[in-house]
Amino acid sequence: QAFFCLLLCIPWGSSCPRSCQCTERAGAKAVLCSSQHLEEIPKDIPRDVVLLKLDANSITRIPGNAFRHLSHLEEIDLSKNAIEKIDGAAFKGVAAGLRSLDLSGNRIRSIPKEALLALRAKLRLANNPWHCECALQELLWEARPDLDSVRDITCHTAPRQEYVGKPLLQVLDAGANLCSARQRTMDVAMLVAMFAWFAMLIAYVVCYVRHNREDSCRRREHLRSQPSAQAHAE
């Protein structure tokens, strides 16, 4: 952290995004765009940046491949924005080298697990209105962020009222399974689908039998009518 703080003091001469300040120390470059009323991530960030500060802006989403060309990135600060949506490929291209990702103080309710699967960075996720549901539990199972990152997650909303306001780790440590409700929903949907298929099969059989019966009746009537027709002819 002290090393990155030193980057704030030394300007460098190459291209720099408008409204941002660019600094350099010992070849490590930082782009500082804090509190600049930005609504999206700048497109002209230098490729060799190591530290990128975009905190305290009005950014609402992180699109796919937002940082793909910034292969030297080690730290991204996106705290205190208005981020609601994060694309599954948001951090594609920088995941391997990223050491710190700050997403605290936003409006994030959920994150696609694909966005974090390859990350090994220290995550900061506090002060977001997290919805504690199966998708978030699966994210923890598959992405396996460090405990300090997970400890920051508090359930703002949840399928069950008793989980609201509690840290997610506390909910899961108490034995809760946030995926059980979805599993029950899937089971019910499967039963409904099977019942519908069975009902259609029965309806088909009934129609088939009724059609054959009506066809047999028409044939019998036709056969009965033949002798009478022959008698009238004679």
Task: Record the SSE blueprint.
Layout: H1 2-6, E1 21-25, E2 28-32, E3 49-53, E4 61-62, E5 75-77, E6 85-86, E7 100-102, H2 113-116, E8 122-124, E9 130-131, H3 134-143, H4 147-151, E10 155-157, H5 168-173, H6 180-233
Parallel strand pairs: 2-3, 3-5, 4-6, 5-7, 7-8, 9-10
Antiparallel strand pairs: 1-2
Detailed description of the structure:
Residues 15-51 form the LRRNT domain. Belongs to the LRRC3 family. The chain has 234 residues and is α/β, with parallel strands linked by helices. It folds into 2 domains: 21-177, Leucine-rich repeat, LRR (right-handed beta-alpha superhelix); 182-214. The chain has 6 helices and 10 strands. It has helices at 2-6, 113-116, 134-143, 147-151, 168-173, 180-233, and strands at 21-25, 28-32, 49-53, 61-62, 75-77, 85-86, 100-102, 122-124, 130-131, 155-157. A 6-stranded mixed β-sheet has the order 1-2-3-5-7-8. Strand 1 and strand 2 form a beta hairpin. The chain starts with a helix and ends with a helix. 26% of the residues are buried. The model is unreliable at 2-13 and 182-192 (pLDDT under 50).
